[in-house]
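During the no-cost extension, the postdoctoral fellow (Dr. R.K.) reprocessed legacy sequence entries with the updated structure-token encoder. One reprocessed record is reproduced below for audit purposes.
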Amino acid sequence: MDNKYLKIYNELAKKIERGEISPKSQLPSENQLSKEYDLSRGTIRKALDLLSQNGYIQKVHGKGSIALDVNKFDFPVSGVVSFKELSKKMGTKAKTIVSELKLIKPDKHLKSKLNISGDEKLWKIVRVREISEQKIILDKDFLKQEYVPSLSKEVCEDSIYEYIEDELELRISFAKKLISVEEPTLEDKEHLDLEGYNVVVVVKSYVYLDDATLFQYTESRHRPDKFRFVDFARRTHQ
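Re-encoded structure tokens follow.
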């Protein structure tokens, strides 16, 4: 079995994962790798093709192979996960900064998002998520006061979902999500460490309780280089 290219693939993949080959840096050419490993260019090319398919490198015409940043955080598209739960899973240093917490009267836009017809008030919570000392997520949450009568800064810094489920004894069931790529707003630029990126990935979520009551609308705005949005799909056969 010709597994020589897999050995090269695994070695280069580990170097990229460990940062020994830094993101955006150029890998040695096929000729250089061929000489280094004493293997044919065809074998090296197979290893590079596999690295490209699995998101480790980008082949750029005239420049060769460029290493990509693989140290991204997996953000589940189909799950309903709190930032506290996500940061525990990532095992990385994370911090939540609450920049705004207040009760508001919803405008027409928010009324349409949350199917409100009367004078119901909403909690508006704006939080900046910091991971490894970089501000990379801006969360804007709107919750119906009818279901969440009170909120504190301490709860918002910790986990609103944990508070809702453990203290208020409500069961959060499912969410509908829309994902788009947008230009950063002035608010994004003010709160996030964008480092020159001219787009943000926006996840708009409509969150429901187990009785199918819509109680929350969220806009979660992410710096694009630090996240990959993952899902699991299974084909159903008719």
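The mean pLDDT is 88. Helices lie at 4-18, 30-37, 41-53, 83-90, 108-113, 153-158, 160-167, 186-191. The remaining legacy entries will be reprocessed before the final report is submitted.
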